[in-house]
Amino acid sequence: MRGLAILLGYTLLGNAIHSLLSVPISGNVIGMVLLVVSLFAGWVKLAWIEETAQFFLKHMMIFFAPIIVGTMMFFGVIGDQWFAAAVTLVAATMIVLLVTAGVMAWQSGKAKERTYE
Amino acid sequence: MNDAWFQQPLFGIAITVLFYVGAQLLNSRYRWLNPLFLTSGGLILLLLLCDIPYEAYSAGGDIITFFLGPATVALAVPFYKNFQKLRDQLVPIVIAVSAGLLCGLLAVWGISGLLHASEQMMLTMMPKSVTTPIAIEIADLLGGTPELAGVFAVLTGLLGSMMGPILLRLCRFRSDLAIGAAMGTAAHGIGTARIMRDSEIQGGISAFAMGLSSILTPLFCIPLIWWL
């Protein structure tokens, strides 16, 4: 329970700061940054939150399920361009995946060659 | 019959958790089946077949989605644990994420043009690789359709989380950095959630790439539109 209390506390703190300062970063992200800072400062010990955090992270997919169910309300809006939209989304997503992974691997490859010189 | 049993929040919460657990069981048997696709696809079918209004489901569904808040805060743990690695690799990660995003924007422009999609549609698809609230804002800025941009961002996340691990394995990418950066850049939070099931390190890198792409996408989109 301690872990859940800390996670919810930082979520609350982040969202409070977000609405008070009206910064363009989401309250959840502010809460996350504050928790990273607190871990480094030693105000929060990793052992207090690790188990709860790992539970949330492992099951993160379930929190998106209602959002995906919600997209069904919009299927009618896509209309007669659904085919072009579907092909573009699939192809462009594959390109982003491959280019990002490729550039990342290519750079680490170069770094390795340098260390072996 | 105003208080129909399925209008309680309990209904939405219970069926989401039940379908998720069922999806996990299927996924442990057939690894290639994506649990999020199974869960949400099953729920959509159930609502359509039983003629249950979406509003009745979302009373409980919204409570499940609320927990994205503490789940996002929980990303502090992989960040903290992998801070050294992320700092050492900061420049390569920024280069890889930028390259991926730029190619993605050009691909949306090129492919939707080839398929004769309207310019409105093209502008709506541009911010597909960032988290939903940011996609909505960028689409609004570019002159696309904001609500539809949100839907495309969610669908891209789902697509990326389904195709990503298979595609990256086929192309023999093995490093945590390459897999994490690709999933976070292409499929934001949903890709991060998917890869987090396999590895906390990859998930942490993916979350970092997702944050970077939320900052970089608006920066890239605006000059690109002027140039096109």
Describe what this molecule looks like in 3D.
The complex is a heterodimer of chains A (117) and B (228). With 117 residues, chain A is mostly helical. Chain A folds into 2 domains: 1-58, no CATH class; 75-117. Chain A has helices at 2-21, 27-41, 46-58, 60-71, 75-78, 82-116. Chain A has 6 helices and no strands. Chain B is mainly α. Chain B is built from 12 helices and no strands. At the A-B interface, helix 1, helix 2, helix 3, helix 4 and helix 6 of A face helix 1, helix 2, helix 3, helix 4 and helix 5 of B.
Find the count of extended strands of chain A (DSSP E, 2+ residues): 0
**How much β-strand is present in the residues of chain A?**
under 5%
How do the helices and strands follow one another from N- to C-terminus of chain A? Answer: HHHHHH
Write down the domain tally of chain A: 2
Largest sheet of chain B: none
State the end-to-end CA separation of chain A: 52 Å
What structural class do the secondary elements of chain B suggest? mainly alpha
- What letter string, H or E per element, gives the SSE order of chain B? HHHHHHHHHHHH
Give the CA-CA distance, first to last residue of chain B.
56 Å
Bulk shape of chain B: globular
Helical amount of chain A: over 70%
Point out poorly predicted stretches of chain A.
none
Mean of the pLDDT scores of chain B? Answer: 90
Oligomer: heterodimer
Number of helices of chain B: 12
Rg from Cα of chain A? 21 Å
Based on secondary structure, the structural category of chain A is mainly alpha
Number of domains of chain B: 2
**Approximate shape of chain A:** extended
Approximately what portion of the residues of chain B adopt beta-strand conformation?
Answer: under 5%
Radius of gyration of chain B: 19 Å
